[in-house]
Design goal:
By secondary structure, the chain is α/β, with parallel strands linked by helices. It contains 8 helices and 10 strands. It is globular and about 60 Å long.
Length: about 260
């Protein structure tokens, strides 16, 4: 038996395929683009090809993400909070706080001692501090977004940014460059600003997060600079699973196995 989880986000469409034991066989992340049905089909094809199985071998499909209702052939559509919670508890057991920063939104999930969802907070009204925000800042800095984490290491004294609005922050970055501020310092300042904004969201559900086992998921978790800045803001180590961008899809596949296996 094979179980497929598909997470249809604004920036990427992620798929994870598990076997009957719950072991990950293959996973993929593809850009969502303007046509998410095409992205869903591509993600399915890629993950099945990587695992060497056909669509007929899949016992059940569970979808999640904002586009979850567009996945054809699904047995169930499950919320992002539920799928990310299930995924992170399997990958990093004992997590009490999950921070997920995706393409256009961010969320914080607090768990009880048994690993169940106790509370959550979301920021889905503004793209500040998300993957889209970082992409815009990388364009302003004329660097690849994947290089931001390493550039952060060169910013001994982070620059101060006064706005997290994507439009205003981009203008501010351009001004800092014109003033001769080092790229590394600008990048570190951006990461600190993201961490500060994220901390404000976290405190809506956890007034004092210090000391809690914290994990991070979402594509932005690949950025080591953001992880370091968030760890400093929280006063504790933020753990990141090996594939943070597929946590939701992995959780959806686990739910497919539990419900329909």
């Amino acid at each position: 038996m094979r179980f497929l989880g598909i997470d249809v986000g604004s920036l990427s469409c992620d798929a994870a395929l598990l076997d009957e034991r719950g072991e990950l066989l293959a996973a993929t992340v593809v850009p969502t683009g303007a046509r998410n049905r095409e992205a869903i089909a591509r993600a399915k094809d890629e993950v099945l090809r990587a695992a060497g199985v056909s669509a007929e071998d899949v016992t059940a499909v569970v979808s999640t993400g904002y586009g979850r209702d567009r996945v054809e052939g699904r047995r169930a559509a499950v919320t992002e909070i539920t799928c990310h919670a299930r995924g992170i508890q399997a990958l990093l057991p004992g997590t009490r706080l999950l921070v997920d920063i995706g393409g256009q939104d961010s969320k914080a999930v607090r768990f009880d001692a048994q690993g169940g969802v106790a509370d959550f907070a979301m920021n889905d009204k503004c793209a500040a501090g998300t993957g889209r925000f970082l992409e815009a800042m990388a364009r302003a800095l004329e660097v690849d977004v994947s290089a931001l984490g390493e550039l952060d290491r060169d910013g001994s004294d982070g620059a101060t940014l006064s706005s997290m609005c994507t439009v205003f922050a981009e203008s501010e970055v351009v001004s800092l460059i014109a003033d001769g501020v080092a790229v590394g310092a600008i990048v570190r300042g951006l990461h600190r600003a993201i961490a500060s904004r994220t901390l404000a969201m976290i405190k809506r559900i956890v007034p004092d997060p210090s000391g809690l086992p914290v994990a991070m998921s979402g594509g932005v978790a690949h950025n080591a600079g953001v992880v370091r800045a968030l760890s400093a803001a929280l006063g504790c180590e933020v753990r990141v699973p090996p594939r943070p961008d597929i946590v939701g899809a992995f959780g959806a596949a686990l739910i497919a196995r539990e419900r329909f296996g």
